[in-house]
Amino acid sequence: MVCSCALSAQTNQNDVYELVDQMPYFQGCKDLEEGSEDKRHCSNRNLVVYISEYLRYPEKAKALGLEGTVYIDFVVDETGAITNPKLVRDIGGGCGDIALEIVKNMPHWEPGYMDEEPVKVLLNLPIKFSLKNSGIENDMKLTWGTLTSEGITKKDLMDNLDDEIMVRDALGNNLQVVELTVVYKKGRKMREAESRGDVNANVKRLVRKMKRGGEFVLLTTVQYKGKFLKVERAFRII
After folding, report:
1. What is the pLDDT of residues 134-159, one digit of tens each?
2. Yes or no: is domain 16-129 CATH 3.40.50?
3. What whole-number distance in Å separates Cα of residue 127 and Cα of residue 51?
4. φ, ψ of residue 39 in degrees (nearest 5)
5. What's the average model confidence in pLDDT over 194-207?
6. Where are the domains of the chain?
7. What are the C-alpha distances in Å from 95 to residues 56, 111, 197?
């Protein structure tokens, strides 16, 4: 939560916030109650529909078999306009350019508010590129020790640091994790660590640096019936 001072009469127009009293909403939800769960769901749904409509898979990425998630930072300003889009994690093959184009061409949002004043808000948008249409990955379950919920504490994370990251198929069979990437983001900073499927020294070093308020994603590649599939899971540190 962001604690604002009641004595502040105005907001510095140059300030860019990451968390405000009312976060921005994607277009198409003005008729719903401000701050309601319905309006937030409407915003998220409309954003997904917009991305799906304009997402194109670059031919180079297809030819190389590139898949994964591209991350874009951008600012919704006081008028709801999109400014300062920035590619913070790319997977190559032209995917980053497509993701940037999608963000740059977004319609105006409803701006975010702090102390009842519209302000600039920094957002981070993950855009997933996947060649798989089988849906098999959706039936797989990724676990790390006893971490079961999306929101976890730093203590929970440290308690499971030495445990194995596992992926099971729909029948509960363990699958071999052949690649692991951990992507951590807090504020404008993003770091990542990679391994050949295990929680190695690089991954542990990154985990120890994680702090409350940050987010991280476990990106795994598993071998399943002769194919390599991508399975991922996101966590928030609360």
Report:
1. 566 777 899 999 998 889 999 999 99
2. no
3. 8
4. -70, -40
5. 92
6. 16-129, 136-237
7. 9, 28, 25
